[in-house]
Structure formats: C-alpha cells, structure tokens
Amino acid sequence: MSPRGALLRIASLLLVFAAGSGLAEAPPIAEHSAKSEVARVQRHLRGAEALLASAKTHGMSETQRAARRIHMERLAAYRAAGRFPHNHEVPGRRAPCFVDKHGTQCAMAYLIARSGRTDIVDLVARTRNYATVVELAADEVVGPALLAWLEDAGLSVEEAQRVQPTYPYQFPHPERRITGQFASASGSLGLVNLVTLGMNAGSAVRHRGPRWPAILGLASGAASIGLGAANTNYEGERRTLGFVDIALGSASIAASAWSMIASRPAPSLDFRLPGSDVLLRPSVGMNLRLGGPGAAIRGTF
Hints:
The protein has helices spanning about 5-25, 35-55, 60-80, 105-115, 120-125, 135-140, 145-155, 155-165, 180-205, 210-230, 235-260, and strands spanning about 270, 280-285, 290-300. By secondary structure, the protein is mostly helical. A hairpin with a 6-residue loop joins strand 1 (about 270) and strand 2.
C-alpha cells in the first residue's frame, strides 16, 4: 500500500472511531441491571465532584474550606466503593432513598454520617427517607439541622442536591444543560475545525497547499478535544456535546497531520558533477520496451 493510501486509511479509521465515540448513547433508563446502575451513579458522582472542585470558595472561612475538602475526599471514596442504596418502595423506576432497608446510605447520608452526625441521618430515615435534598432543606423538622450541617460543611443546598443522583420525575439540574458559554466555544471551534478539515483534506489529495490550515487545524482540534473532555463529566446533552467536540477535534487533527505529510515535497535527488555545470537528475519509472520498471539519468547543461 502506498504511503498516501495508508494515511488515508488511518485518517478514515480515526474519523470513524471518533464519531462512534461521540455519538454513543448512554444505556436507557429502563435498564436496571446492577452493573449499569452502579456505573450510572458513579458517573453522576464524578460530575458532582467536578462541580465541587470548580466552585469558588473565597467567601468561605478556612474551617469551611477544610471541611469541604474532607467531604470531597470522602465523596470520591464513596463513589469508588460502588455500594449504593436501592429504593424497594418504588419498583420499576429510580427514586431517591436516603438509607435503604439494608442500611446502605446514599452519598449525602454517607457524608453526614462520616462527619459524626448520625442523628441527622436517623431523623431523615425515619421521617423523609424518600425526599430530595431540596425537599429536606425546606422541611420544618429536618431542614434546620440539615441547613446548619451544610453551613459547617461549606456546601450549598444546590451542591448537595447535585450530589444526589437525578431521577426521571425530577427537573434536570443546570449542569445537565448546555450553557451559553459552552455552546459559543463549541460552535466557534467546530466551525474552524470543519473549515480546516476541508482545506487540509483537499491539500492532502492534491499533494500541495498552504501550511497554515494544517497548523490551525492542529490547534483548533486540540482545543476542541480539551473543551469536550472538560464537559464529559456532566450528564445529559452537555455530556453528549462534549463527546461531539472530542470527535470533531480528533478528525481535525487527523486531517491536519495527513495534509502535512502528504503535502511534503519529495526530496530532490539532483546533483551536479564536481567542477562542471552538468546537472544530473535521476528518475524511476515504467519502461515500456522492457515491460517493467526502469531507471534513467538525465543531464542538463
């Protein structure tokens, strides 16, 4: 296979692989196997951890910031353990459960219990075991204790709600939606990637063309991959667009590399006889008389 053919095949495989990764859908909600459910909750918790890590804490006290860091470490350990509660009271669909009948705690119950406030966990389990964090915060009995704990923990109600996995009947959290800033950056990079992809593919086919589209394609492709990777920790359409950005960025980089290699001029084999003006130019081709390949040397004066 010629180098050009090999490059074309590699670029095509990269494009197909990237597109397949970007368009892959998450398992359907109706799938309730234990393995898929654990993976779903772990993915959700990774998104919560990313949100907590990126939030600004300059308005908090040092005690709150220290407590927040501890809770983030505990949340990561809880996610890695992969032991999550099951709501046996609402069969056939996912629903929140603070502590299930086996004593397994949800993420928020785990964080509160590890801080030593098992009294809050027991109170919620007895009175509002199947409520969301927002509902608990508004409850006349549970609310005051929970809000006080969140204040000491350096966490907001919105962040605590984000830790709790989403369910079909709940409104999606803002982190699932595509923000205006993300959409603008994704659209701008996508346009640059598409333009440079077309230009670089044309240059590769013609074996000639300017170098700047390849350089721009490499830069925009890398930026698109970085932008997409930063948003794959979220859920919903925001995560999907993140994978699309990664796919388009990978395609742009592949086309740029293909263009740079295919458009590279072949090395010159010309040489001049020492002490003369004779320039010899070797060439290789098909010899019709001999019925096979042949070589020749032409000279110019």
